[in-house]
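Chapter review: from sequence to fold.
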Amino acid sequence: MPFRKMNLFVYIIMALAVFGIFYQLLFDTAQLFKYILMTVGFAAILFGIFYFFMKRRGLSGFSKQYRKAVKQSKRKYGNTSHNQRMYKATVRQQRNKSHQPGKPKATRSAAHLRVIDGKKDKKKNRASF
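The token string follows.
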């Protein structure tokens, strides 16, 4: 029940606010617009102050490091994105492979992969568990 009373209270407050705005719009329009502009201006000033102090603090350190890394990456690789370069390289390789006649190359196994032989002949004795 307390939740329903709270909802009723909120609806009454909202209805009074809407009634007040319409009343002021009809009878004192200049004052309403002046109030709205002052509210927007005050919010913009608060946002500017908040943004200025947050920028000066160490919270933007992460973005500084990110910008530095992006700049270094652009110097190394250029302005094109990595995915575009990789796509162009694979398309170029596919074209070169399709245009080369002859016997196909033998595939080699990767040197860093090994098969480890386990003890396959020895079965587990379930009675010993």
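Two observations follow directly from the output. Helices lie at 2-27, 29-56, 61-77, 82-99. The longest helix spans residues 29-56.
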